[in-house]
Design brief:
Radius of gyration: 20 Å
Structural class: alpha/beta
Number of domains: 2
CATH class of the largest domain: Alpha Beta
CATH architecture of the largest domain: 3-Layer(aba) Sandwich
Helix content: 25-40%
Largest sheet: 5 strands, parallel
Strand content: 25-35%
Strand order of the largest sheet: 2-1-3-4-5
Distance between the termini: 48 Å
CATH superfamily of the largest domain: Response regulator
Order of helices and strands: EHEHEHEHEHHEEEEEHEEEEE
Number of strands: 15
Number of helices: 7
């Protein structure tokens, strides 16, 4: 019998890798939805009601933990994470499973065996493990970033954060775009967000954070799509559906 599966993972390469590995290791898995952020993951869960959900712990929008909290005992959950400090003893107790990035085939196969054993019964209640995982999250930095160190060619520059037009994920780096030049930092967007003033910098896409002062306009392309026009710059930045609410009247 087919098992309906939801995958929520914001990193494109990891998402494709997990999809490919599932097709090979678990032919009975029917991936009904693939989400790039927590908000879409929850919407997809409500639409498809899958039996199994693979959730990245850290995602734009709602985190994997927040999505799991909403799912409750309506699906079997496997957390996917790059942070082994989250692999606490509660995982080993068998309530839910976890996969560490980069996911290895042997570890996925072990998780699938566990899932197949559990599918004959009801999903576990997640409240206890979620409480432990929430406690394991690092506290966000109270002080906001005022400057950052970034690579520009062979130079390391100190950049005033308020001068940045937008930040955008670029493979292993984050592009830092200013009016006259671009720079690169190694900090991922999702880690950068905690240090930015949310009243000044809006996340408009899983890969893009824009300085509100740099927004000239937000234009609707059609019923589903919108883009931001950046002041005195040729760039137009796509706005994902999860963040269009920022531009509603």
């Amino acid at each position: 019998m087919k098992t309906n599966v939801l995958i929520a993972e914001d990193e494109p390469l990891m998402r494709e890798r997990l999809l490919s590995m599932l097709q090979t290791c678990w032919p009975q898995a029917h991936v009904v939805a693939v989400a790039e952020n927590g908000n879409d993951a929850w919407d997809s869960f409500l639409e498809h009601e899958p039996q199994v959900a693979f959730l990245d712990i850290r995602m734009p929008g709602m985190s994997g933990l927040e999505v799991a909290e909403r799912i409750g005992n309506r699906a079997h959950v496997v957390f996917v994470t790059a942070y082994d400090q989250y692999a606490v003893s509660a995982f080993e107790a068998g309530a839910v499973d976890y996969l560490l990035k980069p996911v290895e085939t042997s570890r996925l196969e072990k998780a699938i065996v566990r899932l197949q054993d559990k599918l004959s019964g009801p999903p576990a209640a997640l409240q206890s493990i979620l409480s432990q995982l929430k406690a394991a999250f690092p506290m966000p930095c109270a002080e906001k970033l005022t400057w950052i160190k970034a690579t520009v060619g062979k130079q390391i520059k100190l950049i005033d954060v308020s001068a940045v037009l937008y930040f955008q994920s670029d493979t292993k780096y984050t592009r830092v775009v200013l009016p006259d030049y671009e720079a690169f930092i190694r900090t991922p967007i999702k880690d950068l967000l905690g240090g930015l003033d949310q009243s000044q910098f809006w996340q408009i896409h899983r890969s893009t954070v824009v300085n509100v002062k740099a927004i000239a306009a937000a234009q609707r392309i059609d019923a589903e799509r919108m883009e931001v026009v950046v002041k005195d710059h040729p760039t137009r930045l796509p706005v994902s559906r999860a963040f269009t609410h920022l531009f509603r009247e």
